[in-house]
Design brief:
The chain is an alpha+beta fold. It has four helices and nine strands; from the N terminus they run H-H-E-E-E-E-H-E-E-E-E-E-H. Strands 1, 2, 3, 4, 6, 7 and 9 form a seven-stranded mixed sheet that branches. A two-stranded antiparallel sheet has the order 5-8.
Length: 182
């Protein structure tokens, strides 16, 4: 388009507008509302709380581990989530295991460590519990938060297990010195 030869800038503007609006653009792509809602909630949480506290449950049984796939995060993770106001780490872990994996603990859960989760937020900390006594009466159905919940052998972990999840399994299973960061 030759702007110098045009005597009508309004026509040029209208032409540019129609060309821009007629071609798809990443700027105007409408995101998935569920994913947007979760990201918004996480963002508000980071702003409104001075420090965030979370829990993860390593659910082990017969050389197998339970992992979940979230709708808003890539890869496979241990079940877990945020600690609510007035809730202990242990209470939050029991609740998250039930909500994300339909698991009921039938024995003690051991606190393995507390990690700084710097990649998520430098003020985010995660308490990790190891649970060896549990049952899952009915496998959970996928929902808005959890897309899948599966039992994997420790020798047959998924390729897209997160680095933090894999590192924690090495610490627990192989006695690797625990890290400070998730």
């Amino acid at each position: 388009m030759d702007l110098a030869g045009s005597g009508n800038l309004v026509a040029v503007g209208q032409s540019l507008y129609s060309q821009t609006m007629s071609t798809p653009s990443r700027l105007f792509r409408i995101p998935d509302p569920r994913r947007l809602a979760v990201r918004l909630a996480l963002g508000v949480s980071r702003i409104s709380r001075g420090m965030t506290l979370g829990v993860r449950a390593v659910l082990l049984k017969d050389d197998q581990v339970v992992l979940v796939r979230h709708s808003y995060l890539p890869g496979w993770h241990f079940p877990g989530g945020g600690v609510e106001a007035g809730e202990s780490f242990h209470q939050a872990m029991v609740r998250e295991a039930r909500e994300e994996a339909a698991i009921e603990l039938t024995g003690p859960a051991d606190l393995f460590g507390v990690y700084r989760n710097g990649p998520a937020n430098p003020r985010d900390h995660v308490a990790l519990y190891v649970c060896r006594n549990w049952e899952q009466p009915v496998p959970p159905k996928p929902n808005l938060e959890i897309r899948a919940c599966e039992l994997f052998t420790l020798d047959g972990l998924p390729e897209d297990i997160t680095a933090g999840t894999n590192a924690r399994l090495l610490e627990i299973r192989d006695g690797v010195d625990p890290a400070t960061d998730w």
